[in-house]
Amino acid sequence: MAVMEPFISIYSGALLAGCDEVGRGPLAGDVVAAAVILDPANPIIGLDDSKKLTEKKRELLFDEIQLKAKSWCIARASVAEIDKINILQASLLAMTRAVQGLHIQPEHVLVDGNKLPKWNYAAEAVVKGDSRVAAISAASILAKVTRDREMVLLDKQYPGYGFADHKGYPTKVHLDALEKLGVTPIHRTSYAPVKAKLEQLQLF
Predict the structure, then answer these.
(1) What is the dihedral of CA 24, 64, 11, 91, to 10 degrees?
(2) Res 201: pLDDT
């Protein structure tokens, strides 16, 4: 398998932020974003796309990133916002909030994916950035660990759906539970399986 080349930014200064989001695909829960400015003098070993790391490794890096980064911020867009403005715009909104929330403001931002939020920051979109740019990898880890922890807590609040296991993604277990138990307040009503269930209920 070919190894992807690291991304070389047009910016070479020290106030570079990486930004990423987690949770576009799930049927339930907020979309969570994070922004991180790493400290070159305090390197973090093992950063990678959060999806490629074990849960244990993500948890360890989560603490290390918060300890060693120059600045970090975790933000979100709510289920209500997702349903109102769509998941793409909600993801961009969450990322904007994450970067704006950094206590040290960046001079340049690298964003995972192929779209940039409408903001005033100098920025570049980086396809597969979470495996090419350390700061984006760090952001993806903060966002994923935060969201996963929240879904575990929501599993206790809404038992029977399996949120702790599938984190809101449309697995067979989740879809079966949605059919059997119905729609919760944390489900995204604009998503097809949830919308279909609500329409089905309105027929009776």
Answers:
(1) 10
(2) 76
